[in-house]
Design goal:
This protein has 271 residues and is of the alpha/beta class. The protein has eight helices and eleven strands. The N and C termini lie close together (12 Å). 41% of the residues are buried.
Length: 271
């Protein structure tokens, strides 16, 4: 059996319900869980490293430093509650640039607690997993996240970005050539890059997904909902590739699509 987690990043208070419905109805109808890495209190002036507004703002930018709490979008919250195939995981606090690459442990701890509180106020159960903006962590960011969450999902791990007390477990992971590893209290999942991305070659995308799934017992497939709607318009070809991915995952009886909650509960082998 091969296990797959579909992780879609950047759902927030400015995300249109129609976008998620358009993308993920084929997954929901097949009973395939969709893990939404959700920003609890998004900055409405969030910028990328190049200074351009973040795509997940979907054009609703401001220059005031204002925030938008996920619970203020009642239509979105109601939609997510009505569709239990969506699983909400915490994605930073406000998605400031490299937010969890900071070395300020107390501030990071505060952001994690406030983010969890805002998701709870919107009626979502406690997140079993944490995803940092841009998959960027400092040692302090990892240490803070591990206090709150049994699972951390990110792209890669490096010695200098790990708490020193995690180095022995990481050395064992490297020796065993494992994609995923754990400390005594936390499971750390890596992923093979954002394979479902509008910036990757489309003619080889499905083949890359097949190869990634075949290469490991548990694969985290990462995508971003806003990439399917550049300038607010649907990219029909890219959306079709996502829907073909749903068909690919459902067609093979050796594939099982799971949630981060399944992994946190110990129901999914990860090595």
């Amino acid at each position: 059996m091969r296990y797959i987690i579909l992780r879609d990043d950047d759902t927030n208070a400015l995300t249109p319900v129609d976008c998620l419905e358009r993308l993920y109805r084929p997954f929901l109808d097949r009973g395939l869980p969709v893990n939404l890495a959700t920003i609890p209190n998004v900055r409405t002036d969030a910028q990328r490293a190049d200074g351009k507004p973040e795509g997940f703002l979907h054009g609703h930018t401001s220059s005031s430093g204002a925030h938008a709490w996920i619970g203020r979008n009642r239509d979105l919250v109601t939609y997510l509650h009505r569709n239990p195939g969506y699983h909400i995981v915490q994605h930073g606090y406000d998605h400031s640039l490299y937010e969890f690459g900071s070395h300020a442990f107390l501030d990071l701890d505060r952001r994690l607690a406030k983010g969890a509180h805002l998701l709870a106020e919107a009626g979502f159960p406690r997140s079993p997993a944490f995803v940092a903006p841009y998959d960027r962590f400092s040692p302090q960011g990892l240490r803070a996240a591990a206090r709150f969450f049994p699972v951390i999902s990110t792209g890669w791990f490096e010695w200098l970005n790990l708490p020193p007390e995690w180095w022995p477990a990481y050395a064992l992971k490297k020796l065993r050539r494992q994609a995923h590893w754990r400390t005594p209290s936390t499971l750390l999942l890596s992923h093979p890059g954002c394979l479902l991305s509008r910036f990757r070659p489309r003619e080889t995308m499905l083949d890359q997904i097949r190869r990634a799934i075949a290469a490991r017992p548990l694969t985290v497939l990462v995508t971003h909902w806003w990439e399917y709607f550049p300038d607010g318009r649907p990219d029909e070809e890219f959306i079709d590739l996502l829907h073909r991915t749903a068909a690919l995952l459902a067609a093979d009886p050796e594939n099982r699509v799971v949630s981060f909650a399944d992994v946190a509960a110990g129901a999914v082998p990860w090595h």
